[in-house]
Predict the structure.
Amino acid sequence: MFLNCSETFHVTTLPIGYHCLIMAHKPLKNYLACVAIDIGTTGTGYAYSSVDDFRSNSLDVTFNNRWTDEYQGLLALKTPTCLLLDPALKFHAFGYEAEDKYADLAAKELHNDWYYFERFKLQLYKSEITQDLQIEDAIGKKVPALLVVTETIKFVKCHALAGLARQFPQMKEHQVQWVITIPSIWNMAARSFMQSAANKAGIKSANLLIATESDAASVFCLFARSEKGARDLNSQPVGTKYMVVNIGGATTDVTIHKRVSKINIKEVYEPSGLSQGGVAVDEAFVKLMTGILGEATMDRFRVQACNEFVKWMKEFENLKQEVPAIEKKATPAFVISIPSRLNEIYKSLNDKPISDLTKSGKFKYKDKIKVADGKMQFEINMIQDVFKTVTDKISDHLNALFKVSEISSVLMLIFVGGTAESRLVQQTMIQKYQNSKRHVLYPKEPGTVVLKGAVILGHVVNTEDQRLIRHTYGSGIKVPFKEGVHPENLKIESAGGSWCRGVLKPFLMAGTPVKVGMVIQYEIEAVNYEDSVFAVYKTEKRGAEYITDDTCQQVCKVWMNNILPAKSKKPQTYVVKYMFMETELVIELTLKETGSKYHITSDIEFEEIF
């Protein structure tokens, strides 16, 4: 089905130039949901969608949001990649809980017998990954890497299953398709290592798909459609070469893909990467602060106030996302708090608080830094320079790649990953690479693209005889009118209130894969039976809100009391069933009171994807 890949449950290696987007995978029968896990260098998270969610809207993916309420945005979608094992090498905590517990142990000097792993994926990047690889904990004690990754997957798996159980109480574990993402530059041995860890964590091979981050990103971009006329990957013709640049926490991975069909790609050049990402920006900021406050102050702050240091760096991570690349006259300064322990440590070493720092005539940043009210205010160009060391190295790497003949014809660059959320990174890369020849694409919320794409990928490999539906289908409904939100020309007065008529309520989004014979069913209640109208509309425009939109076409419109006469005038309930056939959409309406049925048939357009 996918480029004639051999059928097997295990990850297979394919030669460059014949890369299969979907790793060999036998469809999982009767599965009900797909869960994708992304173990990043700095953050770990998961996302999921049910089969029904996917069928109605392939982009309807749910993220876990229960890690913490303290940090907003992307940080809230992931928990720190930190694992704490007790002295017997048994699991104790992961994420924020592991950070807090280890900081407490360290403060009491009780941490030496425990095993704490932070950003351990960096050690996997720098090592030849084998089943017996050993990695070091925070103080240098060695532990099998397989144990660390297994316990991580096991924790996320249990967390995800608990969330699924709340939403889908009847779902069983064997009905879940799991997708675990890995860096594109990892070799076959690394992929086998990850599969072994997943198996030891309780995920069976039949339920497991190992997918590269770049493949997941490509899948998302192939399914995500922009407004009509906008340039996106989905609109590019077969044969288009494009570059996926995944700027993550610790690394930047670059993969070159070529679109060979609607949803099949092949890799046209060996993946590459460099150790530059969000962590490098954080380290550059700490280096700047070390130059300002002194090495002794910063070293003591890291060790003696570990918990405050971690929270301070998280504050920086949040703030840095909004730093602009283009400086305008109205550009505000960059302001960050000064932790109380940092001020205490500086004062103990220098006999004065940090607030007195800028009063000295010898302070070299006197005109660029201000300290007041427990905050430090930087001229924005100082923080831009912190980023520049990283963005320059990424650009140098990309420029070198563009000199390669196989890559010189790349027409699109797609930037994804957590660090690609940064305004400065986005503006910098657009300035450098957007021109008449090449287009820079930033998907909405680039930090979530890999996980969303991995969820979609997990559904795609389990769906046979698929076709993408060309239009969004929906019905016209009325909703309570909201001043300033709804158009005045759609306002009506009815049933003692103001309503907005003609709101498009989609039941199937354009680009959703469907199988011949697929059925969507739901019930509707007609309060005023004699005036009830059933109508279906279709549109190619993503985001169309009203049936009055120029792109909306009426598929059918019937008066319910004419086609399905009821025995009484009381409110009636109807069962609506949409059945997708080879070339037709069959709509079946059933009046529950009498069981009588009415059928409507309409032509339907698909886009073949294989």
Observations:
- Residues 60 and 225 are 13 Å apart (CA to CA).
- The first strand starts at residue 33 and ends at 39.
